[in-house]
Amino acid sequence: MSLILEALKKSERQRRLGETPSLGSPVMAVRRRRSVLPALIVLIAIGVAALWWMQREPAAPDVEPIVATNSQMARGSSHVGRPGSQPA
């Protein structure tokens, strides 16, 4: 049944091929297929950014924190440095 219908449609198209289109002539809507490539590129970029974010290490401080020992605080020493360092 569908083969007969397809043949009738084809014959009608061939018959109307040389005629100018009228208001009653059928219009074939052309549907473009969207490309998946842009979405795929965006997903890959998001994945790479997420992996980078999870793999990065926190920035190390440039300066060591100043640590005062209890004995230096008790003496009121103005020299505060690393533990074990001697005041000059």
SSE topology sketch:
Layout: H1 2-16, H2 37-55, H3 70-75
What features would you describe in this structure?
The chain has 88 residues and is mainly α. Helices cover 45% and strands 0% of the residues. The protein is built from three helices and no strands. It is rod-shaped. The protein starts with a helix and ends in a 13-residue tail after the last helix. The model has no long low-confidence stretch (mean pLDDT 76).
Order of helices and strands: HHH
Which range best describes the helical content: under 10%, 10-25%, 25-40%, 40-55%, 55-70% or over 70%?
A: 40-55%
Radius of gyration: 40 Å
Structural category: mainly alpha
* Strand tally: 0
Proportion in β-strands: under 5%
Average per-residue pLDDT, rounded, comes to: 76
Which consecutive residue ranges, at least 5 long each, have pLDDT under 50?
Answer: none
> What spatial form do the alpha-carbon principal axes imply?
rod-shaped
Task: Specify the biggest β-sheet.
Answer: none
What gap, in angstroms, lies between the N and C termini?
A: 106 Å
The helix tally amounts to 3
